[in-house]
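Colleagues,

Please find the record for the four-part complex below.
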Amino acid sequence: MLTNLQTIRIEWGDCDPAGIVYFPRYVEYFDRCTRALFERAGLSKRDMLKTYAIAGIPVVDMKAQFVIPSRYGEDVTVESCVIEWGDSSFVVRHRLMRGDAMAIECFETRVWVVQVSDDPVKYEGRSIPREVKEKFGAAGTAKAQS
Amino acid sequence: MLTNLQTIRIEWGDCDPAGIVYFPRYVEYFDRCTRALFERAGLSKRDMLKTYAIAGIPVVDMKAQFVIPSRYGEDVTVESCVIEWGDSSFVVRHRLMRGDAMAIECFETRVWVVQVSDDPVKYEGRSIPREVKEKFGAAGTAKAQS
Amino acid sequence: MLTNLQTIRIEWGDCDPAGIVYFPRYVEYFDRCTRALFERAGLSKRDMLKTYAIAGIPVVDMKAQFVIPSRYGEDVTVESCVIEWGDSSFVVRHRLMRGDAMAIECFETRVWVVQVSDDPVKYEGRSIPREVKEKFGAAGTAKAQS
Amino acid sequence: MLTNLQTIRIEWGDCDPAGIVYFPRYVEYFDRCTRALFERAGLSKRDMLKTYAIAGIPVVDMKAQFVIPSRYGEDVTVESCVIEWGDSSFVVRHRLMRGDAMAIECFETRVWVVQVSDDPVKYEGRSIPREVKEKFGAAGTAKAQS
């Protein structure tokens, strides 16, 4: 199962008056990590949008547990992988590690969508191409990955 | 049960190249809505930090479902309330309405914490004062609210 | 000369570990204030993009002086107006007031542009329609406004 | 004169519905580049705040010219250096390069400040220690650098 490790420097501007990361910034970090995971699989966002004529892979469901805070100036590592493949959706798991300790765990459910009108809020799921799944080392069934 | 309605203008800079809100911005909207809910209860963050000597009310768990996207220039309304009170934690529910349709539902579990060392990442939960809960119209037990 | 006053609540997440607004957030505030100024003139961004077939009014030059910091929980007011009209460009001045004190002054030079290819980075200035200028109370010449 | 080169990946979430970087994000990029420039000089922010008992190096004046936009998925490079040293202030110049073309030039005037009360908005400039300037290869006078 393809896993991406991304080192992230906690910036001053990502932290709040309590001196720790303002939590919505983590959600942004994780979105970047999904982008990086796809690139590791050989799939840049720009190419994906063109090749597969999709509007994107928006998040439809998110769950996160914030266990340990992080401070500015620290380097943390995020381990990201797809833990489940459905027909038109998939689940990305991110684990933000502060040294050996898991500081945050986040699950993003994303959908492979096409736009179905000029209105950008109208889109529909489509089957994820087999070749895309294969780039992540996914076998035929989702269960094997989870 | 005290509920706060917050109108939010979707700004151009909150939207992505697909023309819809970049989803981490919603998490920021909801944090603002929790702040506004507490103010409606008569509890400004600055006062709370001073009066109760707490470090804050950080989110330790978050769940969100993103059902319908929103576009720049739209006004959406977020309905926020505390749906459950524990001893040191509580759950805030946000529903982002796009007209009559529920576009997003988000649950934040937050903890009432004090700092226990100079290191801002070290903090511990404390019992939420009864008077705080009462300002939200909470009865003695959490279950009655959920 | 049309002036817009916008009250802005300084949010916790807009402030840094020093307890004051992280300065790039001000630039975002000012962009919102330009949007609000145009709406006061009867020009919503969505309508402008459609009516005049422009790609936007991007900032090509910015100058800002940060005199007094602001803290979370404060309400500040931004006074915004167009102080100069050129053929295809104009200058917006924002003054962020903390009570009676001018905390920040910012000048944005913006251009009225159309896209000239499929590549979003390729755009060109166009003459600003007279009716647009008139909505701001601008007389025939730019100098009269500055 | 010490110069830092920082490669920045333009993220999807940093871009707006026009498909180009939302300009306040650049200001955030440049702040990160100043942080990186200081680290290249051997000065991490955390250490600086402790060693010199300063509150920070806030920006008091900023000028920027936005010449060419950038799109998501691109890698740009920012060249940063201190071009002028005063007694308590200094000027950082950032040039964001899109390939060989200078896309943006930004000048930040920053001040070496200490906090002078419990109120984080009250601070005052102090003389920048000679050893700090020397780490950037600055000679005795500011003019020689500019």
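The two ends of chain B are 10 Å apart (CA to CA).

Comments are welcome before we finalize the supplementary table.
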